[in-house]
Amino acid sequence: MAIGLSYWGIFGTLFTIIGGVLYLMLPPKLGQNLGRKAIHQIFRWFVFYLRASDLVRSDLRALAPLKNLHHPIIVAPNHTSLWDVVFIIARLPQGVCVIKESILRNFVLGGAARLARYIPNGATTRMIRDAADSLSENGHLLIFPEGTRTAPDARWINPLKGGCALIACRAKTPVYPLFIRSNTRFLQKGWPLWKRPIFPIHLQIDLGEPVFPSENESPQQFTLRLQSIYEQELAKPHPLRRQMIPTSE
User: Fold this and answer.
1) Cystine design at 101: which of 122, 167, 186, 206 (Cβ 3.0–4.6 Å)?
2) 3-state secondary structure of 202
3) How far apart are the C-alpha atoms of 58 and 201, rounded to whole Å?
4) What is the pTM assigned to this prediction?
């Protein structure tokens, strides 16, 4: 675990410095492609380390079909943990993320995110416009419909925000739900970074059927339909189904 945290500290800081310089020097398209490929490789090797060290036993096979899709798609996972994006981008070479605006100012992650032209979720109008532009280039857009990590006391998932549906309806793009399950609450909201989980961690990501916005469906209606899909799938019996946190009386 200490080696893993050191990996992030060293490579994240180096890439932030180098990425910040390249962001200013390179043409936007070239920098974007280079940044996304570099992030993909850093995440891919980190996932390889987690597996090789038996810290995490992850089943990511369901993500394989996504990289063979050459049309615009929205990839929409539930958000169980701080490192969800690592496992997904490790399998999605040209994915572009909608991220918290604060990450662009983060010393460890900011330079890489700026170089890759990741999309900040600050101003809704701008976010939707930038996301739609990315999809018009046959992009694979990664957005967490919850907008933040699932609350510790949530049964399956937080109430979904409207951003994913607004983008899908505007760009007329299918949403591919991802269902993340794990046997731990490691790096959920409120989990201290230094708190050690029980190893090995088991994690599985499953791919749902694409969900298309209907012609006369409003973003609000589409959001409710997506909410129902996540709740029904995550409630199904599964070895890694989310467990309730015991409450003290």
Assistant:
1) 122
2) strand
3) 8
4) 0.92
Q: Report the C-alpha gap between 20 and 197 in whole angstroms.
A: 34
* Token pair belonging to 135: 């999809």
Q: Which one-letter amino acid corresponds to residue 8? A: W
Nearest C-alpha neighbor of 160 from the set 150, 169, 152: 150
- The class that CATH gives domain 2-234 is alpha beta
Tokens of 136: 């018009």
Exposed / middle / buried, residue 192 (Cβ in 10 Å: 0-12, 13-18, 19+)? exposed
The residue type found at 22 is L
What does the mean pLDDT of the chain come to?
Answer: 90
Closest C-alpha among 41, 56, 78, 96 to residue 226: 78
Kindly report, residue by residue over 132-172, the tens digit of the pLDDT.
Answer: 888 988 789 999 999 999 999 999 999 999 999 999 999 99
Strands (E), 86-216: 95-99, 119-120, 140-142, 175-182, 201-207
User: 58: left (phi > 0), else alpha (psi -120 to 50), else beta?
Assistant: beta
